[in-house]
Amino acid sequence: MNPREVTVGIGVIGIGVRGRHAHEHLLAEHPAAKVRAVAQYPNVTPELLEGRGRDSWEKHAARFSVKLTDDYREVLARDDVHVISLMTEPSLTAKYVEEAAAAGKHIFLDKPMATTMEDSERIVRAVEASGVTLMVAFNYRYAFPYREMKRRIDAGEIGDLRIVSVDVCLNKGPLPEFTASESYRNAFGGGEVANFGCYAADLLLWLTGSQPRSVFATMATRFYEDYRATGMEDIGQISVKMENGAIGNILTGRTTTQSPWPIEAVEVVGTRGFLRATPNCTFRIEGKQVLETAYGTNRVQWMAFDFIDAVLEGRPSPVSEHDGLAAVQLIAAAYGSAETGEPIYL
Amino acid sequence: MGRIGVAVIGAGGENIATGCHLPALKHVPEMELRLLHDVNEEGVRRTAQTYGVDWTTNFEDVLTRDDIDLVQICSPDPFHASQSVAALDAGKHVLCQKPLALSVEELESMSVAAVRSEGQFQGCQHRRYEAWARASHAAIQRGDIGEPVYGRFQVKGRFYPYPQDSFYRTAESGGQFVHNGMHYVDVLCYLMDTLPVEVFARSARHYPTADRLESDNYLSCMTKMENGAQAWIELNLMMVDPPLTPAEERVIIIGTQGTLRLGNEDNPNFEAFTPGGSVRTRVNPLIHVANPFVLQFREFAHTILTGRPNAIPFHFSARVMETCLAAVESAGTGEPVKLRDWLERGVQ
Ligand SMILES: NC(=O)c1ccc[n+]([C@@H]2O[C@H](COP(=O)([O-])OP(=O)(O)OC[C@H]3O[C@@H](n4cnc5c(N)ncnc54)[C@H](O)[C@@H]3O)[C@@H](O)[C@H]2O)c1
């Protein structure tokens, strides 16, 4: 396909159920892409809508100069829709991925991919059977310092990987309209460890290129009353031993701090060097500084473009359903460990 | 008691006793140096000449002299527990260098001695007296960041090239987390005002050259704290930095209302983000407003002289030490380790 001539039609399924989070406007920024249809899915868990209703869905559709489609199946049936921007609650993604894949649509899916391993396996099977491209929105991979880290690790610049430590801890508390609820927890498969920990898990898995062998985690609810009332954790730490011998350390959660910066950092220690990336990064190999930079790229935009390009070029998915499943597996093990107080062996 | 009569153990070489304890004592008006001990006769005699005090190579002399009230133990690690017990049993106060003990059994024997002794005990946990630690502690006590719920102390550096025949190279020493871990665990517990109840750790090793210790030189230790907080201590001595590159230290304390970050890396800094606004200052933790040894000695002197509560009670130090021992055990077995309540054993 020639990107200059072919337009990638985007269909949206799911509006405003993950806060106001969406990807279609980013996908539509691609010169070859255009949103052609927008639909809500039926039986949305009401708490997830945070009081927003049909009005806001119509407004969302109007943003892309289309009318709200009443039935999502009409979106799947359209020949001029090639890609589904899927933003349903994670506990329901498997069903919609199956339907979209069966309709031959490529899928751009928010994280976490699913709430259970069973659902993750269903997604993997559906994508494999149909041959479509599915990408999970692990946008941290597109932050320049982490990408640069990955390139240098893969090029062998720091020798064998021994330690990978990842912090993905948000600041400034939950979004204004958000209230923790049993329904949220069920729909998302947990609290902030599922929500942000999956980014950290993906970075760990991606950077090490290895599988987790043993997982130990502790979690707590320390910041928010509504989280406490529903038994939803807001902070946690995870210790991972990877198959290749590397040790992974994860801190994740959602803090109240008014610091303008989230607590976000990745550190990688290899047998020949050390890479640390935060909003600023320091790379040192054999004791010599090789890179110091500030990070300015819009990682979410870059990720969306990479997906459209992958679809146009017929490249494999940059962050596939297998990556999505691996992150779900690690996070599920973390919950298992936190619950039992024991390490979980995979 | 007028001034506190002090004996310093291990004062026969160029070491922590002669490099830190003896110089600090000059600035502690409540204490008077009276006796030095070491197994190295020539060394201890020379130091004694410099300071104009008595010396001995017989530890019994330290215990039997009535004018010795406080024994500062700066001998090598394997002697800390037995010398502490002997001094406590002789009714002396004890200030013991880290690590307090090389095993939980040794810690037990110290706790028994601490309970039956009239003497007060303190571990030499001087890092909490460094300016940055005291400033952070004060900010947390004021409530600037609310209640601390997560704490982290990360250290990255090259392993210390001990002489080839050094005990600290052997597996028997317990490795670097036993030897030095107390510093980091203590500072975190002090800042967060709580102690670990459970420890899970992993360790690894990488020595860039043929020069190596028998133990792992990386340890990552996650803990659950008594008050429900979580903490992480990482001692990474696998770094491939040029020799003599100072170790990097980073501390984060996350509170219910804000965070505090400290670091001594390229840009030594102290950042506090609180509901009242943010502060960002440069505090070089290596440049002390006041010498931390002097501060600890003076505070301990007040406890000894006035009966004021011990600022670092034995049960606190014991749990800190046990955390380090448990971390090494956990890294070996792959299982979490629950810690004892030393307070229950009657030790204050
Ligand atoms: N708090 C700190 O920052 C800090 C710093 C350095 C050392 N230390 C601790 O202090 C202790 C001493 O460390 P160092 O670097 O000064 O060691 P060192 O080996 O240089 O000095 C120890 C001294 O003790 C003497 N000695 C050996 N066996 C003895 C015994 N049975 N009784 C009395 N003296 C004996 C030695 O002759 C030597 O003079 C160690 O346990 C170490 O962990 C603490």
Topology:
The complex is a heterodimer of chains A (346) and B (348).
Chain A: E1 8-13, H1 24-27, E2 33-39, H2 54-63, E3 68-69, H3 72-77, E4 83-86, H4 93-102, E5 106-109, H5 117-130, E6 134-136, H6 144-154, E7 161-170, H7 182-188, H8 192-195, H9 197-208, E8 212-220, H10 225-230, E9 235-242, E10 247-254, E11 263-270, E12 273-277, E13 280-285, E14 288-294, H11 299-313, H12 321-340, E15 344-345
Parallel strand pairs in A: 1-2, 1-4, 2-3, 4-5, 5-6, 7-10
Antiparallel strand pairs in A: 7-11, 8-9, 8-15, 9-10, 11-12, 12-13, 13-14
Chain B: E1 4-9, H1 16-25, E2 31-37, H2 41-51, E3 54-56, H3 59-64, E4 70-73, H4 80-89, E5 93-96, H5 104-116, E6 121-123, H6 131-141, E7 148-156, H7 176-192, E8 196-204, E9 218-225, E10 230-236, E11 248-255, E12 259-263, E13 269-274, E14 277-281, H8 292-306, H9 314-333, E15 337-338
Parallel strand pairs in B: 1-2, 1-4, 2-3, 4-5, 5-6, 7-10
Antiparallel strand pairs in B: 7-11, 8-9, 8-15, 9-10, 11-12, 12-13, 13-14
Helix pairs in contact in B: 4-5, 5-9, 6-7, 7-9
Describe the structure.
- The complex is a heterodimer of chains A (346) and B (348).
- By secondary structure, chain A is an alpha/beta fold.
- In chain A, helix 5 (117-130) runs antiparallel to helix 12.
- Chain A is globular, with a radius of gyration of 20 Å.
- Chain A is built from twelve helices and 15 strands.
- Chain A starts with 7 loop residues before the first strand and ends with a strand.
- The model of chain A has no long low-confidence stretch (mean pLDDT 92).
- Chain A folds into two domains: 3-138 and 301-320, Rossmann fold; 140-289 and 329-345, 2-Layer Sandwich (Dihydrodipicolinate Reductase, domain 2), CATH 3.30.360.10.
- Chain B is α/β, with parallel strands linked by helices and 348 residues long.
- Helix content of chain B is 32%, strand content 25%.
- Chain B contains nine helices and 15 strands.
- In chain B, helix 1 (16-25) links the parallel strand 1 and strand 2.
- Classes of the chains: A alpha/beta (346), B alpha/beta (348).
- Chain A binds chain B through residues 162-163, 165, 169, 214, 216, 218, 220, 222-223, 235-237, 239, 241, 245, 247, 249, 251, 253, 255-259, 263, 269, 271-274, 282, 284, 286-287, 341-343, and chain B through 145-147, 149-150, 152, 156, 198, 200, 202, 204, 206, 208, 218, 220, 222, 224, 228-230, 232, 234, 236, 238-242, 245, 252, 254, 256-259, 266, 271, 273-275, 278, 334-336.
- Nicotinamide-adenine-dinucleotide (NAD) is lined by residues 9-10, 12-13, 15-17, 37-40, 43, 74-77, 79, 97-98, 124, 126, 179 of chain B.
